[in-house]
Amino acid sequence: MIYTVTFNPAIDYVIHLDALTPGAINRNQFEDYQCGGKGINVSNVLRELDFDTVALGFVAGFMGDGLEKGLNAMGLKTEFIHLPEGQTRVNVKIKAAEETEINGIGPTITDADMRKLYAQLDRIGSDDTLVLSGSIPACLPGDTYEKIMAHLESKNLRIAVDATKDLLVNVLKYHPFLIKPNNHELGEIFGRVLKTDAEIVECAAKLQERGGRNILISMAGDGALLLDEQGSSHRIGCPKGKVMNSVGAGDSMVAGFLAGYLKTGDYEYALKLGTAAGSATAFSIGLANRQKIDELLATL
What we know:
This protein is an alpha/beta fold.
């Protein structure tokens, strides 16, 4: 089984405009409501690829109830912890000439709530996969991912981490199966602007030396690069298409990579499926569907 953890789930209110004019009344052309959060996105794309998941995390209030019901109606299995106070976030995504986002704050997660999450994680078996994805709410300490991985270290789980800066770097000592920074995030870790594949490989190799097993670097329209735990480097370009959406593309790549690896055990195929899934989301209004993923995979 694959488990995903989302500390910051949200209902995304997506608005499409010709142009956004500050200080004026703006009439949207099209609107949509999406059940969001990075781990939830991973679960949704894995479902499209015929993999069962359990989405873990925290929800609160009537917004949280609505998010959970929406995901269940889509066929997603959830085991969210319901917080007694606050509301699950509502994020506003404005898509005009430029993309603008207004993200909500979200409810407070207490130590008692975290103990409930640890109890859920204790039920995960050694053959399972865990995805830790996204930022940590301000109410939790910055070493939350470290503590989770330390707690689970004896299980030898396959753990994927999609996070930034210290949140990512500090878990490397626990040897995550997969980490997925993009090229800009990779450069920020080392205080550099990475301009060439050689520079990206150099920095990715340093993360591997610190304990990361498979280092997947997404590079938007320039494709992706993978250093696998067997010592090989893989480079792939990006399929052709019109970018309509940047939200969830990285999550989709994580989902596609995991699906590809779990299906075949082949890292090159995992990279292809990850790239197809990430691109399929980028070329869609919402998250990728199976048909679009298969269409793009055939071109790689």
